[in-house]
Amino acid sequence: MSNDKNIVTKTNDGYVVELFANCKTNDKIEEYAEGISILEIDSKLEEKELYAKYEEIVDSLDERPIIVKITEKDKDVLKNQLKAMLRVAKIGDLSIMFSQIACANELIEYKEILEECKIELEKKEIPYKKHLKIGTVVEIPSSALLSYELGKECDFFFIDINSLMNYAFGVKQNNKKTTDKYMEFQPSLIKLIQQAIQGAHDAGIYCGICGEMVENKLYMPLLIGLGLDQFSMNSSKILETRNAINQLDKSECKYLVEEILQLRKIEDIEYKLKQFAQN
Q1: What are phi and psi of 60, to 5 degrees?
Q2: What's the CA gap between 159 and 168, in Å, rounded?
Q3: Angle between the 266-278 and 250-260 helix axes, to the nearest 10 degrees?
Q4: I need a labelling partner for 26 at 20 to 30 A (CA). Which of 59, 60, 198, 220 fits?
Q5: What is the DSSP string of 226-249?
Q6: What value does the mean pLDDT of the chain take?
Q7: Angle between the 104-123 and 75-88 helix axes, to the nearest 10 degrees?
């Protein structure tokens, strides 16, 4: 096993972050990824089949953490998936995160279903992880605005920046003409990201992020300055991103954020980021 995955990713002034691989089940997981996230498996499988799939992935990752994204809405199918993950989490570092959460009540309902699954496993005397870590995907603007309240109900956040941008501005992801107008430089988007991170930290949990913005080095000083704790990306981008972060100073990035938050025009924000990258 390569030692690359054990290298700590940190800025010049010691701010430590984690770099996870964003992948599907059939993707190659590079050894230098600190874990994998946004993992999705066909939830229509039976519990036994799901358990076998998750167990195979856990065994292949050499104790690295896994974060599984839950998108299923049908309760019976969802319970099969949750019970399989509760069982696998007993033998590996596995967490789950629920998507499309707009308010705390929705997250609480998911947690209640999770407790039902635990009771059913208890009755069958099947071993499982008692305290499975639960996260929330921040992709709807209301979840960013209510980040502190949501943060009190879970263990971590993951901002899906692509979805958050689309929902915030009412655009379709594949509509290039429209998305060009609503770029990542929009002040309102940056403030949504900031609010989600601040709410997470105020609630005592960490906040990660995934999406195209993460794989663009131009945005990394902004994201570091905002205080993100974890980044999920294509595994082929991890070494390049780690090297870029190692050359940054968190204090300088934080000052950059303060300057950017005073700007109103996307052209000025873009210029400021490019100017920072050249220095």
Answers
A1: -80, -15
A2: 13
A3: 160
A4: 220
A5: HT--EEEE-GGGHHHHHHHHHT--
A6: 89
A7: 70
Is pLDDT at 28 greater than 90 in this prediction? no
Q: What are the tens digits of pLDDT across the range 156-192?
A: 999 999 999 999 988 765 555 555 554 688 999 999 9
Cα separation, 143 vs 180, in Å, equals: 24
Task: Say which amino acid occupies 240.
Answer: E
At residue 247, what is the residue type? Q
Q: Measured between alpha carbons, how far is 20 from 67 in angstroms, rounded to an integer?
A: 9
Count other C-beta atoms under 10 Å from residue 131's C-beta. 7
- Type of residue numbered 40: E
pTM metric for this prediction: 0.91
Pairing of strands 206-210, 156-160: parallel
State both tokens at 166.
């689309």
Average pLDDT over residues 220-246: 94
Strands 16-22, 9-10: pairing kind: antiparallel
Residue, of 45 and 31, whose pLDDT is higher: 45
Which two three-digit tokens encode residue 193?
């990201």
- 246-274 mean pLDDT: 95
Four-residue CA torsion sign, 142, 264, 13, 230 = positive
Task: Yes or no: say if 21 and 30 are a contact pair by the CB < 8 Å rule.
Answer: yes
Which residues, in sequence order, are CB contacts of 184 under 8 Å at separation 6+?
A: 161, 165, 213, 219
Cα 143 to Cα 150: distance, rounded to the nearest angstrom: 7
Report CA 247 to chain centroid distance, whole Å.
23
Is residue 6 left, alpha or beta, with left meaning phi > 0 and alpha meaning psi from -120 to 50? alpha
Report pLDDT for 54: 87
